[in-house]
Design a protein that fits this description.
GIY-YIG endonuclease, three-stranded antiparallel β-sheet, alpha+beta
Length: about 120
């Protein structure tokens, strides 16, 4: 037995686990949250009201649209003027997550560029 084998054996490597336990499966179970029947899916009115977001792009349009978002879980898409999807995200609180994009600080270059190009969301 090599010193490395002995060291791993002392720590209790993956070979010490019963065959029915998979470390990766257990890690995924902690990350994935099941959606129960009590979660209500409601349509959000993403269309800008007359004059609301006319001619706006980036953080301005996001700030206008965030006013109508619920403090509930959901999925959102950010799109540019051509209708191309820039980003699809999910959040436990749509209002909190989307508000972060409109604040304009602590963004990476990629996120900042995505926010600047956003002309609508759904």
């Amino acid at each position: 037995m090599s010193p490395l084998d002995h060291k791993n054996k002392a720590r209790g490597g993956a070979d010490d686990l019963p065959p029915e336990i998979d470390i990766e499966d257990e890690a995924l179970e902690e990350i994935v949250e099941p959606v129960g029947p009590d979660v209500a899916f409601t349509a959000i009115d993403w269309t800008p009201h007359a004059g609301d977001a006319e001619g706006m792009v980036g953080a301005e349009v996001i700030q206008t649209l965030v006013k109508r978002l619920p403090n509930a879980p959901g999925v959102y898409r950010m799109m540019n003027a051509a209708g191309d999807v820039l980003y699809v995200g999910k959040a436990r609180s749509l209002k909190k997550r989307v508000t972060n994009y409109a604040q304009g600080r602590f963004h990476t270059n990629r996120i900042g560029r995505m926010v600047r190009e956003t002309s609508t969301m759904e």
